[in-house]
Design a protein that fits this description.
mainly beta; Immunoglobulin-like; 0% helix; globular; single chain; four-stranded antiparallel beta sheet
Length: 76
């Protein structure tokens, strides 16, 4: 499971971001830092909702095959 990009990489709480990568169709959980967020899967793309907070945060995706390497996003 791999994250290639999170777009946009600067987002506000409540905004949706698009997470693209490999193996994401098997995602079970998405985290912004230690906050689990709601998401939808569309093929190799995830659409996740940005949680409350501010500043840089690491996004990770968990599934049966393990956890992705983190990708950085800034919550504005």
């Amino acid at each position: 499971m791999r994250i290639d990009s999170v777009l946009p990489n600067r987002a506000s709480p409540g905004q949706s971001v698009i997470i693209q990568g490999d193996g994401l169709e098997a995602a079970e959980k998405v985290f912004f830092g230690d906050q689990e967020v709601s998401f939808e899967v569309d093929g190799e793309t995830l659409v996740a909702e940005v949680p409350d907070g501010s500043g840089p945060v690491e996004v990770t995706v968990e599934g049966a095959s393990g956890t992705s390497e983190p990708s950085s996003v800034t919550i504005e």
